[in-house]
């Protein structure tokens, strides 16, 4: 009797173990399903995006206070955004997948980016800012081309998502004073300055994997907003003074 009882409790714990393993397996699968459900979007399906990781190769972009290179950070975030966009059913064009420029001169490089944008429904250029005048300056700033109304809507949407997801800025999207890229691209186009490499804390964040995923997610959400709605629900924002940028977007 005693032996039988032992056997029974053994088989019971075996069944219990199997049940627990089964539950664990199901919850793991569910997580995967949930993740792809989160990123899949009918609004984005089939849309062609050009993700432009700013600079590259001989042009490192701005240098961070800690020696970080803007071109590397732009590319790391571009690849993360690419992943979200592909999962969302978009067709993704990348101006670069490695640390290389698109042409041997800066002006040809810019022209190549514009030419590639002609095949895209939407264009987003990723950059990091620098302002040596004040290491306190921080936060994301999104630019559009005056006259490109869809671009303005997209810029406001990206800025809003940055404010919500990154909580690093109270800025509003701005018309770019002089961007060769934005002036020459007809599709809705924005330049996202994702943060300041001249600010030590932000430079560290911009190199942090988890923070990079957050930035990519914020942009992806804004893309989804843009293609899902007739008009983005942009709240009334205080007009911020333009931030001087040390970027030079025009071909030399
Ligand atoms: Zn840049």
Q: Could you explain the architecture of this structure?
A:
- 46% of the residues lie in helices and 13% in strands.
- The protein is α/β, with parallel strands linked by helices and 252 residues long.
- The protein folds into two domains: 1-39; 42-228, 3-Layer(aba) Sandwich (Aminopeptidase), CATH 3.40.630.40.
- The chain is globular, with a radius of gyration of 23 Å.
- It is built from seven helices and six strands; from the N terminus they run αβαβαββαβαβαα.
- Helix 2 (70-87) crosses helix 7 (209-228) and helix 4 packs across helix 7 (209-228).
- The chain starts with a helix and ends in a 24-residue tail after the last helix.
- The longest helix has 38 residues, at 2-39.
- A six-stranded mixed β-sheet has the order 2-1-3-6-4-5, sandwiched between helices.
- It has helices at 2-39, 70-87, 106-117, 149-165, 180-184, 200-206, 209-228; strands spanning 48-53, 91-94, 122-129, 141-144, 174-175, 189-196.
- The site of zinc ion (ZN) has 6 residues, from loops.
- Zinc ion (ZN) binds at residues 54-55, 61, 70, 127, 247.
- Helix share of residues? 40-55%
- The number of domains is 2
CATH domain class name of the largest domain: Alpha Beta
The helix count comes to 7
CATH architecture of the largest domain: 3-Layer(aba) Sandwich
For the report, how would you describe the main beta sheet? 6 strands, mixed
Structural class: alpha/beta
Which outline best applies? globular
Order of helices and strands: HEHEHEEHEHEHH
Mean pLDDT over all positions: 88
Uncertain stretches: 232-242, 248-252
Give me the CATH fold name of the largest domain.
Aminopeptidase
Bound molecules: zinc ion
Q: What percent strand?
A: 5-15%
Strand ordering within the main sheet: 2-1-3-6-4-5
Distance from N terminus to C terminus (CA atoms, Å) equals 92 Å
Number of strands: 6
CATH superfamily of the largest domain: Zn-dependent exopeptidases
């Amino acid at each position: 009797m005693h032996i039988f009882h032992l056997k029974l409790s053994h088989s019971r714990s075996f069944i219990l173990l199997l049940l627990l393993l089964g539950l664990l397996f199901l919850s793991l699968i569910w997580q995967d399903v949930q993740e792809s459900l989160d990123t899949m979007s009918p609004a984005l399906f089939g849309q062609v995006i050009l993700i432009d990781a700013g600079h590259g190769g001989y042009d490192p972009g701005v240098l961070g206070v800690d020696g970080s290179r803007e071109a590397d950070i732009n590319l790391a975030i571009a690849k993360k955004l690419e992943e979200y966009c592909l999962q969302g059913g978009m067709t993704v064009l990348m101006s670069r997948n490695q640390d290389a420029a698109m042409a041997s001169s800066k002006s040809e490089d810019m022209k190549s980016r514009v030419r590639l944008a002609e095949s895209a429904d939407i264009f987003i250029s990723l950059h990091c800012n620098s302002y040596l005048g004040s290491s306190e300056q921080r936060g994301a700033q999104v630019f559009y081309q005056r006259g490109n109304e869809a671009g303005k809507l997209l810029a406001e949407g990206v800025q809003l998502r940055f404010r919500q997801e990154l909580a690093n800025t109270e800025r509003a999207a701005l018309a770019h004073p002089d961007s060769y890229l934005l002036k020459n691209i007809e599709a809705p186009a924005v330049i996202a300055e994702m943060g300041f490499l001249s600010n030590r804390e932000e430079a560290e964040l911009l190199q942090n994997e988890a923070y990079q995923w957050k930035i990519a997610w914020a942009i992806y959400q804004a893309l989804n907003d843009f293609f899902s709605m007739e008009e983005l629900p942009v709240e009334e924002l205080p007009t911020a003074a333009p931030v001087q940028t040390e970027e030079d977007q025009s071909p030399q």
